[in-house]
Amino acid sequence: MSEIKSTDIDRLVRRATQARDHAYAPHSHFYVGSAVLVEDGQIVDGCNVENASYSLCMCAERTAAAAAVASGHRNIRAVAVASIGGVSPCGACRQFLAEFNYEMVVICVNVIDGSRRTFKLSSLLPEAFDATHLPAQS
Ligand code: THU
Q1: How much is the average pLDDT of 68-80?
Q2: Contact at 8 Å (CB) between 44 and 64?
Q3: Ligand 1 centre and the CA of 103: distance in Å?
Q4: Which partner from 31, 58, 92, 133 sits 20 to 30 angstroms from 64, CA to CA?
Q5: What is the pTM of this model?
């Protein structure tokens, strides 16, 4: 897979930052936006969506990945996550994202100063569990 253009990374970061405006986080007040870049250059947004029944809260990265799949895209080249502090995806999100390309680029954006940290998902989740560990289907 070819290197992602820096203009696409900039677009992705902008979209994640804008998507944060839609975050529904009345319980934690921690607002997170996300955006995923799919194979044909399209970008799909996500944000965290919380619930009074706390365990039902959904992270921004997972809503973005699920929205991409729901619109027909199963290969994610990069994901941006925008928050105060520029946090990296939680463990559950790392596993969820790995399903759609273990080598995707992960960009964590601090909305306070615009600073970014960039990783490969495979480095954030070594030894991921994947379909090769499942028994073969007949
Ligand atoms: N959250 C995300 O959406 N993404 C992350 O990477 C970390 C945490 C959300 C989940 C919950 O709505 C809130 O932040 C506080 O944990």
Answers
A1: 98
A2: yes
A3: 22
A4: 133
A5: 0.97
